[in-house]
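Protein Entry — a single chain follows
Next Lines — sequence and tokenised fold
***
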Amino acid sequence: MRIIDLSTPVDPSGWSPDPRSRPRWIPRPAHVLDLRGADPRTRTAGVADIDRALARLGCRPRPLDVVLLRTGASGWTGTPRYFTDFTGLDGPATDHLLDLGVRVIGTDAFSLDAPFRDMIRRYHATGDRSVLWPAHFAVRRHAYRQIERLARLDTLPPTGFRVACRPARTACAGAGAGGTRMVALLEE
């Protein structure tokens, strides 16, 4: 199952994450950022990791482009490691992508944030509450959607394709999250 965050922030631009709306930015150009080399101690990618991945692409996302994060987690699907061995975004990295105009961030991991035990370890070590679910809390500052548990990102080119995603009709009214369908559209 693929998950899309349907939280409803207030956005002065009029953008609405209402699951019944047809977002005007989908299908959109998409880019796959390879974050498999991010810090294995914290399991968190920061702004420097995002900038290195963008430099490898040789381009930057334009406003409303989609960014998909390849963390390697899909290789652990069906095992306990799927929930513990992946890279998530820290708050500044999430804000960095959103400041570039990205409004959909997808990941092959269980969560866009670092694994829970890594977040809680850093919280206990520092007392810094900003390390707890920073990508999820970013929706309070930016209107965006996050899609988790994507598959086959390794089969996509790094850039030069489009994705279409739409919340599943079964999403419950008022729910904070629900299923989605995401497909890559490749030019032949």
Observations:
- The longest strand covers residues 159-167.
